């Protein structure tokens, strides 16, 4: 059973998706809408708007930023080179992203890497390091292990953190340290904060490279841009920060911080949870929902690209896991022509916070020091640097949702409930949570729900 099926089954048993809960005074609106407003022009909002447009429903997106794409954010540190400050990889299991790329004529290229390790001051190239035979065996059998568990056993795993699960299996400290470094890049925080259910479900259901497979040629932001084009620029209003949502029998009334007012029959809100809580809701959101919104944390990820005058790492598919503050490095300009190249330091949790807080020179030194055991002093090769820390992004305050211990089954069904004429969508509400695929799935699913 996949996570989505599992979630739907448990939600239906508990009535979470279809029945009112305490504090939810009324159900979904009876009529199909003629006009819909969408908060957010990230992939979720764009996917919802594309589907509504196809269904012939007048739709307007209100987006606080001055660009579309939200957490898909491509950046040119040099005119000739593009790196991703937000979403990086498209997985081979991410069917909707792949289909949409085909529909819009976007090319996906191989963005898989082979990983070096710098651990306890020692550099080992790919092929020269491994985990213990016990861990390697467990890892290659994880799908079978997952599939033989009962639904009850799986659900129970949501109550234990991933670090503890691995420790209790008796793996060595080195194995667990390295899994911490590897897996915390996926969840954006230490695996001591990640539920075993979330970790195992994701790893058991993912591609061999854990969905770190492909990338859009020319920049991942080409996808939201193409989706926006197909919706039409007059239906996407940028720089509109929704600050007040009022609901009445007639529908929804949205007020933006610039004073503009918009009316519609129904609303789809794709804002991350922190932003949902910043909106003034009239009437107020039910307590169960505000509790869930307050309970869900977001991963703190920072991307710190460094431009080097030459690609000293020697192969296009280079990445390197380190136990330094720079954490995980990958070649952000893989297969882009030119002598110069960019290594992106991808740091999570407190490491990201620390790097973000430092003056530029100190940050660069900390990043280069993480690579020093393998490559010596790299300072003379540096040709530029930039940084983006999602923990302080004004419209998300985090990279993506990080479901903690016991939260997957408790919070997600509550967060997915519509509230009168308002539906909620976004990566945080999807089976492929934390991915572009999840954002698109969630936006499309909510439209199906609205129109069913
Ligand atoms: C560092 C990082 C790495 C990632 N890596 C990957 C990866 O490798 N592969 C992958 O598939 N995914 C990855 N992701 C996740 C992916 O980017 C997200 O899952 C997806 O883009 C989220 O889309 P969304 O539409 O749900 O939310 P968003 O993109 O956040 O869109 C929501 C929009 O709502 C707007 N908004 C918020 N509040 C308001 C308001 N009050 N009024 C108006 N507008 C508002 C925001 O500005 C935003 O544009 C990564 C994300 C980050 C940050």
UniProtKB/TrEMBL annotation:
Record Gene3D superfamilies: FAD/NAD(P)-binding domain (3.50.50.60)
Keyword field: Oxidoreductase
Domain Amine oxidase: from-to ranges: 43-451
Source domain of life: Bacteria
Names of required cofactors: FAD
InterPro entries: Amino_oxidase, FAD/NAD-bd_sf, Flavin_amine_oxidase, Flavin_MAO, TAT_signal
One Pfam family named in its UniProt record: Amino_oxidase
PROSITE patterns (UniProt xref): TAT
UniProt cross-references to PANTHER family, sorted A to Z: AMINE OXIDASE, AMINE OXIDASE [FLAVIN-CONTAINING] B
Recorded family membership: Belongs to the flavin monoamine oxidase family.
Annotated protein name in UniProt: NAD(P)-binding protein
Protein's organism: Cyclobacterium plantarum
Taxonomic path: Bacteria, Pseudomonadati, Bacteroidota, Cytophagia, Cytophagales
């Amino acid at each position: 059973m996949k996570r989505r099926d599992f979630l739907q089954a448990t939600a239906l048993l508990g009535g979470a998706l279809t029945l009112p809960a305490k504090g939810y005074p009324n159900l979904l609106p009876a009529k199909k809408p003629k006009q819909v407003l969408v908060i957010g022009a990230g992939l979720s909002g764009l996917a919802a708007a594309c589907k509504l447009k196809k269904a012939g429903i007048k739709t307007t997106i209100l987006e606080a930023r001055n660009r579309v794409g939200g957490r898909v954010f491509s950046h040119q540190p040099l005119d000739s080179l593009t790196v991703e400050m937000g979403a990086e990889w498209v997985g081979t299991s991410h069917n909707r992203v792949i289909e949409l790329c085909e529909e819009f004529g976007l090319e996906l290229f191989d963005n898989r890497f082979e990983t070096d390790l710098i651990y306890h001051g020692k550099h080992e190239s790919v092929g020269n390091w491994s985990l213990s035979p016990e861990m390697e065996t467990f890892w290659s059998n994880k799908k079978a292990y997952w599939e033989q568990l009962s639904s009850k056993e799986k659900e129970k795993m949501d109550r234990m953190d991933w670090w503890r699960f691995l420790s209790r299996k008796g793996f060595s400290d080195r194995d667990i340290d390295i899994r911490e470094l590897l897996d915390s890049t996926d969840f954006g925080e230490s695996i001591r904060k990640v539920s075993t259910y979330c970790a195992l479900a994701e790893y058991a259901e993912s591609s061999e490279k854990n969905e770190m497979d492909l990338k859009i040629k020319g920049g991942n932001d080409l996808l939201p841009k193409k989706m926006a084009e197909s919706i039409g620029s007059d239906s996407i209003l940028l720089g509109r920060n929704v600050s007040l949502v009022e609901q009445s029998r007639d529908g929804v009334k949205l007020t933006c911080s610039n004073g503009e007012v918009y009316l519609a029959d129904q609303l789809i809100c794709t804002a991350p949870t922190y932003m949902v809580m910043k909106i003034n809701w009239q009437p107020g959101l039910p307590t169960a929902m505000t509790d869930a919104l307050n309970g869900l944390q977001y991963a703190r990820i920072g991307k710190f690209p460094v431009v080097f005058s030459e690609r000293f790492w020697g192969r296009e598919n280079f990445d390197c896991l380190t136990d330094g503050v720079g954490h995980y490095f990958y070649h952000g300009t893989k297969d882009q022509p030119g002598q110069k190249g960019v290594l992106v330091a991808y740091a999570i949790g407190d490491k990201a916070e620390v790097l973000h807080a430092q003056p530029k020179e100190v940050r660069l030194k900390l990043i280069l020091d993480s690579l020093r055991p393998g490559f010596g002093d790299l300072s003379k090769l540096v040709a530029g640097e930039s940084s983006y820390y999602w923990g302080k992004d004004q419209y998300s305050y985090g990279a993506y949702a990080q479901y903690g211990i016991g939260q997957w089954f408790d919070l997600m069904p509550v967060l997915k409930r519509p509230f009168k004429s308002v539906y909620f969508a976004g990566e945080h509400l999807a089976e492929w949570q934390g991915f572009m695929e999840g954002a698109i799935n969630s936006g499309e699913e909510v439209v199906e729900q609205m129109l069913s």
